[in-house]
Task: structure prediction
Amino acid sequence: SLREMIAPGALVILTPIITGFFFGVHALTGLLAGSLVSSVQMAISASNTGGAWDNAKKLIESGVHGGKGSEPHKAAVVGDTVGDPLKDTSGPALNILMKL
Result:
């Protein structure tokens, strides 16, 4: 799995260097500012999405839309399974990446 991370790691490291070298300081500033702004939006969106799916499952489990064992509950469990990594890892990881 580490070998598969070489290309994404090289992309992250080489993109600012190549941009600054070939296109200048202004292009590099735009690249870094755009990366920062888009990662803020992605981090907030990932965290909120994960929390919304978790809350939807809890609402269905409270008896709304059929309660536990219903088709909406099965779908909510799948959504919560997808939402947990967004809420617990992806959103906070992007927050850390922004600071770097």
User: Anything to note?
Assistant: The chain has a mean pLDDT of 86. The helical segments are 6-23, 25-61, 71-99. DSSP finds three helices and no strands in the chain.
